[in-house]
Design brief:
With 110 residues, the chain is mostly helical. It has 3 helices and no strands. It has helices spanning 3-27, 46-67, 80-106. Helix 1 packs antiparallel against helix 2 (46-67). It is elongated. 16% of the residues are buried.
Length: 110
């Protein structure tokens, strides 16, 4: 198997892991955590909160797989910078969407 295809398959597996996480979160009965090593926040509607987080993870996984397509161009291709910068931007956008949108909307008010 060619190295380009192998690299893309490994990249796509990580995207599929996020999609699998989205499916798990969608059906979870407990509030899903977004940040590592942080206790989950108290939410007033667990089902809607989990669905919002699951959509975020699912979209993240799909975009991650799409950003891996330049790996198929071959070694030493300048297109790989699109993947690297795209993943950085995608991560920042996901954190902003969670912090400014999902967390703000579903956090239980004191």
């Amino acid at each position: 198997m060619d190295g380009r295809i192998t690299g893309f398959i490994v990249w796509a597996v990580f995207g599929c892991m996020f999609i699998g996480l989205a499916i798990y979160v969608w059906f979870s009965k407990k509030p899903a955590g977004f940040w590592a090593n942080v206790e989950t926040l108290e939410v007033f509607d667990i089902k809607k909160y989990n669905h919002a987080v699951a959509k975020l993870f699912g979209i993240f996984g799909i975009v991650l797989i799409a950003l891996g397509v330049p790996l198929l161009a071959g070694q030493n291709s300048a297109w790989i910078m699109f993947s690297v910068l795209g993943v950085m931007a995608e991560s920042v956008v996901a954190m902003a969407v969670y912090s400014l949108g999902i967390e703000k909307r579903y956090r239980k008010r004191q």
